[in-house]
Amino acid sequence: MKKILAVTFLILLIDQASKIYIKTHFNLDDSVSVFPGFKLTFVENPGMAYGLHFGGVIGKYFLVIVRVFLIGGMVYLFRKWLQKGESNYLLIPMAMIFAGAIGNLIDGMFYGLLFDSGTVYDPSIDRWIGYGGISKFATAGEGYSTFMRGCVVDMLHFPLVDWNVPESFPLIGGKHIEFFKYIFNVADSAITVGAVFLLIFRKKAFPNGLEF
């Protein structure tokens, strides 16, 4: 249990500290090059990992509820796995996924209450609308949105290929090619890395097959 709590706490600390710093020091869409192939680019995401979203506010409520049930289910599984003495090859990657889910849940549930500005949904045009300026912590009752309507803060950007194709190239001339264009955060990274570890060490994580 101590290892699970330690991994969860460390990831949440890094995740929330990085999000709060970006939110309170960057304008929306600001981008700063850290080194070639890595930028800090501030975007807000109303939906899932890596900028995916759907269904406006209803879709957002649905995602928050799904995350709550996912986290509750993982708590149940952790208790069961600990009682059975499962190995760290299972517990540590699952703790990473657990922490990542909590990290993004915090944003979606509470950031609309905690900060004075943020991306909000406009039903008249069925779009999420950004904002200008740098956010500050809101006084009580003056957040940019309501409970469960906050947006996830993303900032990790790895454009390893960022190329404007010369017009002389056939078929793709004049186009802009970027890889990897998705912008994500520490919580997303923890979920992805945890899932990759489970895949790599699946035989040690699930020596008797997948059991719930």
Automatic annotation (TrEMBL):
InterPro entries: Peptidase_A8 (IPR001872). It is a multi-pass membrane protein. GO terms for molecular function: aspartic-type endopeptidase activity. The chain crosses the membrane at residues 58-78, 90-114, 179-201. It is an enzyme of class 3 (hydrolase). One of its GO terms (cellular component) is plasma membrane. Keywords: Aspartyl protease, Cell membrane, Hydrolase, Membrane, Protease, Transmembrane, Transmembrane helix. Pathway: Protein modification; lipoprotein biosynthesis (signal peptide cleavage). Belongs to the peptidase A8 family. This protein specifically catalyzes the removal of signal peptides from prolipoproteins. This is Lipoprotein signal peptidase. It comes from Chryseobacterium piperi.
